[in-house]
Amino acid sequence: MVLAFSATLFFVALGGMPLLDPDEGRHAEIARRMLAGGEWLVPEFKGAAYLEKPPGFYWTVALAYRLFGVGAWAARLPSAAAAVAGVLAVFLAGRRLYGTRAGTVGALVLATSCLYLMTGRLVLVDMAFSVPLAGAILYLACWAERRERPFPAPAYVLAGAATLFKGPIALVLFACTLAVHRLLSRDQRLVPDLRIGRGLLVAALVAAPPYAAAAFLHPEWLTGFLWK
What we know:
Layout: H1 2-11, H2 22-37, E1 44-45, E2 48-49, H3 56-68, H4 72-98, H5 100-111, H6 114-119, H7 125-146, H8 153-166, H9 169-184, H10 190-194, H11 196-217, H12 219-227
Antiparallel strand pairs: 1-2
Helix pairs in contact: 1-4, 1-5, 2-3, 3-4, 4-5, 4-7, 7-8, 7-9, 8-9, 8-11, 11-12
């Protein structure tokens, strides 16, 4: 029910309006150029390297273009899909931690929140970045509650994936969340059980290859992106 409801909210009439926000047009065009030119490591805009974002989001939009053709619906599809995934993640985490009713209510509140609904129907990086980061934190919350697995590897995988959409800030926010939780928690085993060194290695295995390839082939882009 939650999945069908959120899919209706985010997918119906997704391409009914042309690209509205200036950021929509810019992101859509960067992905179109990526698909047309075959340069998948460094985003380009107006004939120059685009230093604002890593390539992850543009990969998803370019893939949607390849599958469904270039247009407003395809350009917005990755954001809508991420939004639905975020609603589903809240439902699953809420059900596991507090019961099915809490998970359902939390998911429906998120799906009908105005800013979340609007962002999930635009060609913006925000949804594709925030959902894997939130998924990492939600998974960690569920893991910390029961410790059924010795190591929360999926949380680190998701945190690493989030860096491909907006950069290393994803790991900073993830680390800040861990730090705040540790300060508020009386669980003395939390930090050792997290195995942060191994977790950072897992995140690096996800995030590092595209950055390493960009550094090797286009060092000026990587330097400009990190400095900016």
